[in-house]
Amino acid sequence: MKKGKFIVISGPSGVGKGTICKKIISDLKLEYSVSMTTRQKRDGEIDGINYYFTTKEDFEKRIKNDEFIEYAIYNDNYYGTLKKEVIDKINMGKNIICEIEVQGAKQIKKLFPEALLIFIMPPSIEELRNRLINRHTNDLEDVERRIKIAKEENKYKDIYDYIVINDDLEKATNKVKEIIANK
Length: 183
Prior knowledge:
Elements lengths: L5 E5 L6 H9 L5 E3 L2 E2 L14 E2 L2 H9 L3 E7 L2 E6 H9 L4 E4 L2 H10 L4 E6 L3 H10 L5 H15 L7 E4 L3 H13 L2
Parallel strand pairs: 1-7, 1-8, 2-7, 3-4, 8-9
Antiparallel strand pairs: 3-6, 5-6
Helix pairs in contact: 1-7, 5-6
C-alpha cells in the first residue's frame, strides 16, 4: 500500500492557517491531525475535534513515554502531535495535514524529511495585529505577546518548502491547494 503524505502548515497566531486548513481538507481529502494542548478550551471548541485538551501533568507523562512526533511550549502552554495517530494514518495511505507552530515543524523536518512544510505569512505585522484584535479572543497584552512570537517565528520561514502570504484568503487557500496537489 502506498503511504500517505504528511503536510505541515505553520505560521503566526492569527495568520489564518486554521481557516485555510478547514477550507482545503475536504477538497483534497486530507485527514486533519488533531493536536494535544494544555491550553484552556475556547468557546465553541470541541475536545477531540479542535484539540485534545489535557492537563500539564498528563502531557508531561506523554513526553516521558515518547508519545509525540513533536511538541512545543507556545504562550505558556504545551502543544503536541501524537505519534501513533499520524504514523497509523500515513501507513494506511491517508494524507495527513498538521497545523503546528514553528518549533514543532523544525522537529518534524528532522524526523520526516519527506514531509511537505508550508509557512503562512501575514502581509504585514500590523495586519496580523489587527486580525488578532478583531477576532476578540485575546486581550491586548496577549496580542502583543503573540506579535512578539510572530516576529521570532518569521525568522524560521526558510526551513519551509513553501511560503504563502495570506493577503487574500481565497488566493492563499488556492495556492496551498495547488502546492499540495502538485506534490
